[in-house]
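so my prof wants the structure for this chain in the tokens format not the other one, which i didnt know existed until like an hour ago. anyway here's the sequence
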Amino acid sequence: MGHRIVWVDIPVMDLDRAIAFYSAVLGAQVTKEGGPGFSFGLLPHTGNEVGGCLYAPGGDNAPSRTGPLIYLNAEGRLAAAVRAVAAQGGQVLEAVHPIGPHGHRAIVLDSEGNRVALHAPTAT
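here's what i got, hopefully its the right format
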């Protein structure tokens, strides 16, 4: 078995704002996808990498700063990703800090109020 996490849905209140936020923070374009009556922001991924999307939830879910903590890959651009957080309407909750032998992370609120971690092997 490969990845234990295979997909993630990130609830958002404003899809276009969230697409702009995640595109800037990830340094890669989040694409708007969908079909009749629905749309979502597809997080960039290839092949069998873990994927995910941004979506406007119904009554069963909402953005949260107390739910599961999702780690997003910011390898090689952690400092730039953290700078993009505030510029795109988010908030840095915990600045970049080491997490033992597992690299470095910053914990942020996205533009929608979700708490997420930005992760990289090094602090830059």
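also thought this was worth mentioning. The domain at 7-120 is CATH 3.10.180.10 (2,3-Dihydroxybiphenyl 1,2-Dioxygenase; domain 1).
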